Amino acid sequence: MSIDLRISPDQIIERYLSMELVRVTERAAVAAATLRGHGDEKGADQAAVDAMRRELNRLPIDGEIVIGEGERDEAPMLFIGEKVGNRQGPKVHIAVDPLEGTTLCAKDMPGAIAVMAMAGAGQLLYAPDVYMDKIAIGPGYARGVVDLDATPVENIQALARAKGCKPHEISVLIMDRPRHAELIAAVRKTGASIRLITDGDVAGVILCTEPEKTGIDLYLGIGGAPEGVLAAAALRCVGGQMQGRLILDTEEKRKRAHGMGVLDPARKYDMSEMASGDVIVCATGVTDGGMLSGVRFGPDIIETETIVYRSITGTTRRIFGEHRQFDKFGLA
Ligand code: VTB
Question: How far, in Å, are 153, 179, 187 from residue 34 at the CA level?
Fold first, then answer.
C-alpha cells in the first residue's frame, strides 16, 4: 500500500508540529509558574519569554514572529519580525503570548496561560499593539447571529432566540474595566448575567467554545488586539464566530497600523481574516482556570495541561504532561 504524502497548498503546517508546539507552551508555562504568586509580573513574563524563545528556536521551522512582545526596540525578545526556528522547515508565521495574564500569574489568580498560534506565512493578521473591540460566540449557531455593529441588546436577544432560551439565561463574559461601564449597564438591562474577568481575554473568548461546561455564551468588549488574533485563531479551529475592530483613535496609532498593512482603520475583521488557512493554536495553563489547570510542582513530577487546536482538521486535543526531567525546564 502506498501512502500519499503530498500536502494541499493550504496545508503548509505539518501535523507533527502540533506536538512540537505543546513543548513550547509547556516550557513557557512552567517557567512562568516558578514565579506564580510572587508579585513579580515582569520576572514571570521574562521567564516565560526566555523559555518560549529557547524552545521555538529548536523547532524545524523557518518562522517569523508576527505577534509578539512588541516591536524590536521595546521588546528584547520575541519581537515582531524576529526569526525563530532552525530554518530547516516550512515558512510559518507565529503569534505568541508567552504569559497571557501576567497579573493573574503574579497574584496566582485563575486564567493565566502560555499561548501561541502558528499559520502559513501571511495568514495571521499583523495586529499592532492597540485595543480591539471584540464579539465572540461558540460553535453551533448560524453565521451572523451576532454582530459587532449591533447593540448589546440586539445581540443578546438574537443569541437567546438562536439558543432557544430567554435573554436572562444568557451569560456574557466582559473584562472588568471602567471603559465597559456603559456596555455592562446595557447588558444588565437585558437580564443576561455577566462574568467579569480582570485579565486574560484570550482564555475568556475561548470559554465561549464550550458553553455547557464554562457557562459562557458570549464575549463582549474591548481588549488587546494581539490577544484578539490569538483568540480568533483558536475559535476558527472549533467553529465559533468572532469579529474584531482595531481601535485606532489617534493619528499615531493609525500610522503604526498603516505601516503594518492596515489600510482601512475602521475595518471589521471576521475571525477568518484574523487567522486563515491551516492554523495550530496551543495553550498551557499557568494558574488554574476554567479552561486549563495550572502547572503542579510535585517532588518528582511537574504536571501540565495543554490544549491544542488545529483548524484544518477541527481537532482539539488535551494533553496532560508529567515531566520527570526537571533539567529540561532549567529546574534541576
Ligand atoms: C487583555 C488581556 C490581557 O490586557 O487583552 C488586556 O487579555 C487589555 O488591556 O491579559 P488593558 O489591561 O489595558 O485593559 C491584559 O489584561 C494584560 O495584558
Answer: 43, 33, 39
